[in-house]
Amino acid sequence: MSYSEDVRNIFTAELDNIRETGIFKEERAICAPQDSEIEVEFPIGSEQKRVINMCANNYLGLSSHPDVIKAAHKGLDHRGYGMSSVRFICGTQDIHKTLEEKLTEFLGTEDTILFPSCMDANAGVFEALLSEEDVMIADRLVHASIVDGMRLCSAQRDTYKHSDMGHLEKKLELHKDKRLRVIITDGSFSMDGDLAKLDKIVELAEKYNSMVFLDDSHASGFIGKTGRGTHEHFNVLGKIDIITTTLGKALGGASGGCVSGRKEIVEMCRQKARPYLFSNTVAPVIVEGALEVLNLVSKTTERRDKLEKNTEFWRKGLTEAGLIIKEGETPIVPVMLFNAKLSQDFAKDLYTEGIYAIGFFFPVVPKGQARIRTQLSAAHEMHHLEKALDAFTKVGKKYDILNRTKQEIIDKYGM
Amino acid sequence: MADIKDAILDYVKEEYLEEDDDMEITYDTPLITGGIVDSFSMVSLKVFLENTYNVQIPDSKATPEAFDSVNKIVELLKEFNVGQEG
Q: What is the pTM of this model?
């Protein structure tokens, strides 16, 4: 079929519809390495502006760390640029096995398998393990990649209200006749910044003979006293059957992900997970970079401790300024604005003030819960946060939302 | 039929609203497009319908459009002879 005008019109109309509903995504060009301060072109082609970055997943500030870059060079020099193969044909190098061992050690599991991304890990893991006789019971706020992975799997799907343990128990009771049950949760929820009640989840899993699946992408490297993740924070190390996580956030920020957990589960993924079987091996540059990241985070907790302090300062500062934030303890701090347009206008004004943060609204977050999501980094210095706080206060004052209740903001701007 | 509508309505309220939520939901309230039920957690509603009315709703029929209100769900169930006299 040729790409006729009729075909073009179908896509054009769909894109117009995306624009009209206000969810058209525009890329900004960052003309610098990832960091707490970056040069940005927005829109692309416009004059560059130096801004404080409050929206990267660069939690530990390792994305451009000199030791990580040096290690990546070593990977390039010693093991080449790419492998031109999937893992099981001729794409497994010694360093891939080393990284899998180091991740197993770091996460406190039995075994680990690398994937090109955590999106791929989540897309492949359920289908590799479960069938029609089984059930997956997921928290309603899990990441989109888990939703997709569940849709690719023939096991029955069910959900429970976000972090509602009573509701989860009801669902476990409802599905007690199934062959296998898997409770599925994020460790740290990416839009709300709260932690799953993992200790309670493990208790329920034991009571109802269920497995636990944890996506710890927004936790690995900094949640828990030595940064091993949500399972360390809740003292349930060794009790999580399946952990997926990413090397694309705190752990270096490049790309790559993994499934880590019970050794049979990992082996099932090696045999059956389609994104593992049918996509290229993780590049040597990334493998060596990730090994250095694990070395750095295992040697000292200095970076996660600094991130924790930055987070405390930021949460306290926003609250004292009179803004409404989602309560929590993670470096994901949503500033609640409730109204979609207000979230966009607010983000635009912040950018004018030299602060780069993004406004999110329905359908990315529930209706009436529009927000600016801010994310802290160990690369932020106090002067960055002070400047950002001044900007939030100034813009908050402009829209007259400081020290207002949720209802007062909704009355003024609508849902 | 009214019994089925009420059963679905009660389930939606219990399953998707928080205890302190005083939102009014009627048979015609848009559930998916209204942001009460999202396309992911809609699977729980499907599980409920299948278990309660002993039917298997294929994914091709369990669309956000078909699940967008209690009345639409009842229409869908009719295709599986649920709520049909005789």
A: 0.95
